[in-house]
C-alpha cells in the first residue's frame, strides 16, 4: 500500500475484532495467532482466551492479522471476515436504506477506533479525527448504484466483503465490482474504488 499510516495511539474496539474471530473460528491456529498478536488476556469460563467486545486493542498489533488471514485463507477468507463486520461492529442508529448503510461505513469505521483515548468520531458534534483513512461514499444520480473509494489501511478484499455485506443487509441482491482502472491498494496504489449496484 502506498499510503502510509502511523498507528501510534490508535486502538480498535473489541466488537470489531470479535467479527474477525467469528469469521475464522473454525481455524483454531488463526484464532490463537490473533489472540497472541493482540496480547489478549481475558478468558472465558473454560479458561480459553477471548476478545472482550467492550475493550480497546492496539491497532498496530491488529493489522498484521489480515496478512496472516490472506496467507492462510486467501482473498475469499478476507472477504468473509469483512462480511462479518456489519453483524458485530457498532454502526450509527436509524439506518433505513442502502444509501444510509453505505454512507454510514466511514462513520462506523471511525466510531470503532479511538486515538489517544478519544473516539475518532463524535456523534454529538459530527467531528471526525483523521489518521485511519476513509470509506468515501458517492451515490450515482438516477441509478441504483453507488461508488465507494477506500483509502484506509484495510486489505482490498476485506473491504469488498464489508461493503457488500453492508449493502446486502438492505438490498440482498446487491453486487459489488472493483473498478480496475482506478488502482488497487493490493498493487501499492493509494485507494480502491468499488461500484455497488442493486
Mean pLDDT: 90
Estimate the strand proportion. 15-25%
- The order of strands across the largest sheet is 2-1-3-4
CATH structural class: Alpha Beta
- Radius of gyration, rounded? 16 Å
**What percent of the residues sit in helical stretches (DSSP H or I)?**
25-40%
Question: What would you call the shape?
Answer: globular
CATH topology category name = H-NOX domain
| Derived structural class | alpha+beta
Distance between the termini: 30 Å
Q: Could you give a short account of the major beta sheet?
A: 4 strands, antiparallel
* CATH level-4 homologous superfamily: H-NOX domain
- Give the helix tally: 6
Number of strands: 8
Number of individual domains: 1
Low-confidence stretches: none
Write the element-wise H/E pattern from the N-terminal end onward: EHHEHHHEEEEHEE
Would you identify the CATH architecture? Alpha-Beta Complex
Protein name: 4-vinyl reductase 4VR domain-containing protein
Please tell me about this protein's structure.
- This protein is of the alpha+beta class and 198 residues long.
- It has a single domain (10-197), classed as Alpha-Beta Complex (H-NOX domain), CATH 3.90.1520.10.
- The protein is 39% helix and 17% strand.
- The chain has helices spanning 14-24, 28-37, 59-62, 64-88, 98-111, 156-168, and strands at 10-13, 56-58, 113-115, 118-119, 135-139, 145-150, 175-178, 192-197.
- It has a four-stranded antiparallel beta sheet with strand order 2-1-3-4. It has a four-stranded antiparallel beta sheet with strand order 5-6-8-7, with helices on one face.
- Helix 1 (14-24) packs across helix 4, helix 4 (64-88) runs parallel beside helix 6 and helix 5 (98-111) crosses helix 6 (156-168).
- It comes from Pyxidicoccus fallax.
- This is 4-vinyl reductase 4VR domain-containing protein.
Amino acid at each position: 500500500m502506498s499510503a502510509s499510516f502511523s498507528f501510534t495511539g490508535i486502538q480498535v474496539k473489541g466488537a470489531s475484532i470479535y467479527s474477525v474471530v467469528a469469521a475464522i473460528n473454525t481455524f483454531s491456529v488463526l484464532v490463537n495467532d490473533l489472540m497472541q498478536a493482540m496480547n489478549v488476556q481475558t478468558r472465558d469460563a473454560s479458561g480459553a482466551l477471548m476478545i472482550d467486545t467492550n475493550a480497546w486493542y492496539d491497532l498496530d498489533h491488529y493489522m498484521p492479522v489480515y496478512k496472516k488471514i490472506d496467507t492462510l485463507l486467501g482473498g475469499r477468507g478476507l472477504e468473509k471476515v469483512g462480511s462479518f463486520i456489519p453483524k458485530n461492529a457498532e454502526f450509527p442508529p436509524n439506518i433505513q436504506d442502502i444509501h444510509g448503510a453505505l454512507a454510514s461505513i466511514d462513520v462506523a469505521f471511525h466510531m470503532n477506533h479511538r486515538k489517544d483515548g478519544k473516539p475518532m468520531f463524535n456523534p454529538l458534534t459530527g467531528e471526525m479525527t483523521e489518521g485511519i483513512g476513509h470509506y468515501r461514499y458517492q451515490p450515482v444520480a438516477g441509478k441504483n448504484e453507488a461508488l465507494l473509494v477506500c483509502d484506509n489501511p484495510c486489505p482490498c478484499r476485506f473491504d469488498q466483503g464489508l461493503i457488500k455485506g453492508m449493502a446486502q443487509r438492505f438490498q440482498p441482491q446487491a453486487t459489488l465490482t472493483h473498478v480496475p482502472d482506478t488502482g488497487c491498494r493490493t498493487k501499492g496504489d493509494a485507494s480502491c474504488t468499488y461500484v455497488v449496484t442493486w
